[in-house]
What we know:
The protein has helices at residues 13-24, 61-67, 89-100, 117-120, 149-152, 164-173, 205-216, and strands spanning 3-9, 30-36, 50-53, 74-78, 82-84, 105-106, 108-111, 122-125, 135-137, 139-140, 144-148, 180-182, 190-192. With 220 residues, it is of the alpha/beta class. The strands form 3 sheets. Strands 3-2-1-4-11-6-12-9 form an 8-stranded mixed beta sheet, with helices on both faces. Strands 8-7-10 form a 3-stranded antiparallel beta sheet.
Amino acid sequence: MSLTVVVTNYLRAANVTRIIDAIRTQTLEATIFVWDNSPAQDFDDPRVDWLIRSSRNARCAPRWWMASHAETDFVLVHDDDLMPSDPNVFAWTVDEAVHSAPFVVGASGVVLNRDLGYWRSSHVGVRAGRIRRDMRVDIVKGMYFCCPAVQLARVGHLDLDGEDDIAVSAKLGGGQPRPHVVLARLQSNFTLLSEEGARSYRPTHRSARELALQRFFSRV
């Protein structure tokens, strides 16, 4: 199986260089795309197969457009503040993605309870609640999000200021309850990198995710 990894950078060029180092050590070779949201910096790395520099911080939605152009079997959206610490992480991920297709495999997610809303629902995986077994979830968070490339190519337009991972999880879930998977073994096989450099969450972040839940998940 072939894989494209899409990394989004915003003011964390040093992190992205370390992530690319880690990508290159993986047992499953990957094509590397980078969407660079840092107009004041000049990130470059000859190991990147496709680099787009934005003249403004377009946030996260453009990474899905870039990912939709992958010509591999699977595509992996990857944040700039964590990196795999085991050379088999991508192989494990794609292995599970083959079995879970057409749905999503990730490192962190949300098991929704509509009575509780987004923030009070159960958050599991990396930077959330620790799990001992793989978990079925409704939302896979965009920090580490793998699915068949052909499915992602069908997602279509995403608002620049939308909560993109919620939207894509809903679109790929097709209305089914908890169709996606958070892999338990990934929790201990990432290095969490510095979150410094990027802006803090916008003031409306919490309310925006609740609104996205209402918009994209009509039922759970």
